Every structure is written in structure tokens, then in C-alpha cells.
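I'm stuck. Protein, please.
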Amino acid sequence: PKLEEVYNWVVFYKYENTWDYKILDRTKNGIELALNLEVNEKNNVLTFIGVTAVDKTGNQSTFNEIKIPIK
């Protein structure tokens, strides 16, 4: 969708082998994600992120994942 047609943003993120997502309304232009997330006493590293735009009828833009370099 064109920028003025965006209803929501969907931010996808992957810690180790698990993808998850957060849905943001169109007024949000950023989100903070921890580089490390502790789950069940295990340190999980953020490895990928991606964003799609969704219009009012649910059409979703293409998804491109970006690999997060591990330092």
C-alpha cells in the first residue's frame, strides 16, 4: 500500500529460531527490541527483523527480512 493507505505496520522479529511479531498503528514509526532476550534462563539473540505495511482491507506489502549482525 501507499504510505497514506497504511492502516497498520507489522514488525516481525526472530530470536534464535522463533519468529514473533507486533502490530503497530499507522501513527507509530519505531519500536525498540532488545538484542538479547532471556527465556527460561536461556539467552536468545535477536537474529532477524522485518516490517510489512497493511491497508484497511488487510492487504499486506511484501516482506523482506534483515539479518542482524552478531557482534
Remarks:
- The mean pLDDT is 91.
- Residues 6 and 55 are 5 Å apart (CA to CA).
